[in-house]
Amino acid sequence: GQNIDQPTEMTATEGAIVQINCTYQTSGFNGLFWYQQHAGEAPTFLSYNVLDGLEEKGRFSSFLSRSKGYSYLLLKELQMKDSASYLCAVRGNTGGFKTIFGAGTRLFVKA
Amino acid sequence: KAGVTQTPRYLIKTRGQQVTLSCSPISGHRSVSWYQQTPGQGLQFLFEYFSETQRNKGNFPGRFSGRQFSNSRSEMNVSTLELGDSALYLCASSPGQGWYEQYFGPGTRLTVT
After folding, report:
1. CB-based burial of residue A60 (10 Å sphere; 0-12 exposed, 13-18 middle, 19+ buried)?
2. Nearest CB to B56: which of A31, A43, A97?
3. Minimum CA–CA partner of A43 in chain B
4. Which of A35, A36, A64, A98 to mutate to test the interface with B (most CBs of B within 10 A)?
5. pLDDT in tens, chain A (111 residues)
6. Distance (Å, rounded) from C-alpha A21 to C-alpha B113?
């Protein structure tokens, strides 16, 4: 089956850097995604990793190690608007390709 | 380009009733996936439709069903509602099946009393 673990909550200070970790187990790995979800809103796509390594996109970077079943999302120069839930999701092939989401990490950015 | 739209946005139903939710994907997108989101379980995959065919299904009982029309619009139906079905139902569209990026709609908040 598929399983995703990520911390429930994190707190960081405006201007700082925060790393949100995600570990996963899946069959037929076909990609790892990070989504941002503000309270009361729909998730929005942040990043996609299918090969090992770091993908950088502005203040956000995402890292993947397939052999370790591990990913992290790195947020730099934190802003108050970054306070949101960050969802790690994995697509695997278990009787068809399915994208499974973790429970999400609620990030609180304080001044 | 307009985003994913879902109707209705809010719905209150009674146990035992049935409900139909609608999703219109982004123009040109042919794949639609449905998710249930609750505070305790997070985002859980319901099913994916592509070219009017259900391609993948999550671990939900048969009370949950869906369909997709030739214009890619999709509906999901929940019969014999239970209190535990209260949740935010999100629809996501993508250009093709298995496309890596999904675009989510605002969701339908269903409350079962």
Report:
1. middle
2. A97
3. B104
4. A98
5. 678 999 999 999 999 999 999 999 988 888 999 999 999 899 999 999 999 999 999 999 999 999 999 999 999 999 999 999 999 999 887 767 788 899 999 999 999
6. 37
